[in-house]
Design brief:
This protein is of the alpha/beta class and 276 residues long. The protein has a single domain, classed as TIM Barrel, CATH 3.20.20.100. Helix content is 39%, strand content 16%. The structure holds NADPH dihydro-nicotinamide-adenine-dinucleotide phosphate.
């Protein structure tokens, strides 16, 4: 699996697995665990979770997935903004570690901006890092002005910005993406297939059938083609995980890229960051 370097020098895989909506229904737990394990076996060793997902339920599932193979996993979790005070962040991280049955996170993110001053959250992140409980930290759903504020506080350490980015949500190409490239901060693209909503788009269906691949694969391959971008599709089904993984093999030509540009033009002007 190709990797990108975080500012710390750590390598992060370009394609991983999301876990939103997992851990919500006890009946589905074993199939969700099985699906994530299958993805790891294929090579999708980056797992993105959060204390929010299933109110801790997703982290408990991830614990079963990573058991016995922690060292090959790149584990990401996130703190709720309302927990992101100095003490609250540390306690939230410790609760996450307990649910995940591990003693460190590879990456810990502030899930979105709340009312707690960023400096306080970053102090807690630094303390967690010094204690060896997190290796890197970063942010999520930060627009350019928030990123600039984070950068003023912490010039070298903000590892990533995890944001909504897919063919139908290209607003970040105006500001967040160039800013992150300039500062060598990878962007993590969430909802890469727009939670399934773009898969029926006519142009996408036509382009993918010409390429003899699926619409989801084209959507993921398009993101993988973007410089400095990490992609984290979520699926609880083995067949779809296999399909999403195979997007790594697709190289889009200039002709394919212009057809996609035409079907999914970027907005005409900068717009505020969108989030789900
Ligand atoms: P995705 O764009 O990854 O889409 C997931 C949905 O698409 C699921 O319903 C899944 O169903 C379905 N699906 C997956 N693969 C395929 C396929 N090949 N063909 C058809 N349907 C498919 O959306 P998410 O919002 O889940 O985003 C991915 C991850 O990003 C999240 O799980 C989470 O980890 C992270 N995220 C972070 C946010 C943040 O604020 N930081 C916000 C949103 C997401 P099924 O499982 O049944 O296959």
């Amino acid at each position: 699996m190709r990797t990108i370097q975080l500012p710390s020098g750590a390598a992060i895989p370009v394609l991983g697995q999301g876990t939103w909506r997992m851990g919500e229904t006890p009946k589905q737990r074993s199939s969700e665990t099985d699906a994530l394990k299958f993805g790891v076996e294929l090579g999708m060793t980056l797992i993105d979770t959060a204390e929010m997902y299933g109110e801790g339920g997703a982290e408990e599932i991830v614990a079963d997935v990573i058991a016995g193979q922690r060292s090959r996993i790149f584990l990401v979790s996130k703190v709720y903004p309302h927990n992101a005070t100095r003490q609250g962040t540390i306690q939230a991280c410790e609760r996450s570690l307990k649910r995940l049955k591990t003693d460190y996170l590879d990456l810990y993110l502030l899930h979105w901006r709340g009312s707690v001053p960023l400096a306080e959250t970053f102090e807690a992140f630094l303390e967690l890092q010094q204690a060896g409980k997190i290796r890197d930290f970063g942010v999520s759903n930060f627009d350019q002005d928030d990123l600039e504020e984070a950068h003023r506080l912490d010039r070298h350490l903000t590892a990533t910005d995890q944001v909504l980015y897919n063919l139908s949500r290209r607003g970040i190409e105006w500001n967040v993406l160039p800013w992150c490239r300039q500062h060598q901060i990878p962007v993590m693209a969430y909802s890469p297939i727009e939670q399934g909503r773009i898969l029926k788009n006519r142009a996408l269906v036509t382009i993918s059938s010409q390429l003899k691949v699926t619409p989801a694969q084209v959507a993921i391959a398009w993101l993988l083609h973007q410089e400095n971008v990490i992609v984290i599709p979520k699926s609880s089904r083995r067949d779809r995980i296999q399909e999403n993984y195979a997007a790594l093999e697709i190289s889009l030509t200039e002709t394919d890229l212009s057809a996609l540009d035409k079907a999914f033009p970027r907005p005409r002007q900068p717009q505020p960051l969108q989030m789900l």
